[in-house]
Design goal:
The protein is α/β, with parallel strands linked by helices. It is built from eleven helices and twelve strands.
């Protein structure tokens, strides 16, 4: 490797989907250039995936040689339950000069996104070999699309989670020709951005009733996942099934034919992972025209 570079993600960015997305964008860059990524901030979710559960450093590309910590019985599992390595990376990123050929990459002020395959970013990484990534707004959508298969392969779920996801959607396939995944996010959305993307469950049900007319002659069913308990009574007259845990629900969404939901990285990841069209509901007057849905490339969204 003529220009080896190693990116160490050092800032915990939100929950599951946020961390998958920042990780995936740097994996796309690493795959394109033959570089490396480590992500100890992913420990909260590492056990859910076959590759990251086997590597305490959550590295890409997958390394054939296991680390000492992974070889010592019980040590890696215990460490993942703490934030020890995550905090170590975060604090190290504050003092990159104590490491040889190392710099810390920060976000730009405001809402500006840094694109990893563009000259601005490439100029920041010249002359160094190791980089702490301390931020969220780093993206490489073109590279994500190019290396989508590699990214999906890296994030293979643990068998039990994959089985749960399959069991959640399979019954709908016997009842309908088209299955639409519906992501209902309420909880924190009541306050985030002043409730801009908070919609009552009745509005979701109304949107769902609008969708079957787009598929004349076909039966339509819905897989509903939510951060709050839902009941069939809330979706009277519709064929629905419900999820139960974050990753299994995300995988179930990715197995649907279309996905709708408020602006969220959760549905964004499901769309990318399953290669399925996504329609983001941006206000209560939105019309979910699924002809205009498109697969996510994991670019930045608000």
């Amino acid at each position: 490797m003529s220009d080896p570079k190693h990116f160490i993600i050092s800032l915990r960015c939100g929950r599951l989907a946020n961390r998958l997305i920042i990780f995936a964008n740097f994996i796309a860059l690493a795959e394109e250039r033959g570089w490396r990524v480590s992500n100890v901030t992913f420990h909260s979710y590492a056990d859910m995936f076959l590759t990251t559960r086997a590597d305490i450093y959550c590295r890409y590309p997958v390394t054939r040689r296991r680390s000492v910590l992974d070889r010592l019985p019980g040590v890696a599992t215990a460490l993942r339950k703490t934030r020890l390595l995550t905090n170590a990376a975060k604090y190290a990123s504050r003092y990159p000069k104590i490491f040889r050929n190392t710099v810390t990459l920060h976000e730009l002020p405001g809402k500006a996104v840094i694109y990893l395959d563009q000259e601005f970013f490439q100029a920041q990484i010249r002359g160094a070999e190791k980089f702490f990534v301390h931020g969220w707004k780093f993206r490489a959508p073109a590279l994500v699309k190019k290396h989508a298969a590699k990214i999906r392969e890296f994030f293979r779920p643990a068998p039990a989670i994959a089985a749960q996801a399959q069991a959640q959607v399979a019954p709908l396939r016997t009842q309908a020709e088209v299955v639409v995944g519906v992501h209902i996010r309420q909880g924190d959305y009541r306050g985030w951005l002043g409730g801009k993307y908070f919609f009552p469950v009745e509005r979701y049900a109304a949107w769902m009733r609008e969708i079957p007319v787009q598929f004349p002659g076909k039966r339509v069913a819905f897989f509903v996942c939510s951060d709050e308990p839902r009941t069939a009574a809330e979706f009277a007259g519709l064929t629905v099934a419900f999820g139960g845990s974050p990753l299994a629900d995300n995988l179930s969404l990715s197995a649907c034919d279309f996905i709708i939901g408020p602006v969220s990285t959760f549905s964004q990841w499901a769309s990318f992972y399953g290669g399925k069209p996504l329609f983001h509901l941006k206000n209560t007057d939105a019309v979910p025209d699924l002809k205009n849905a498109a697969m996510s490339d994991l670019d930045f969204i608000e």
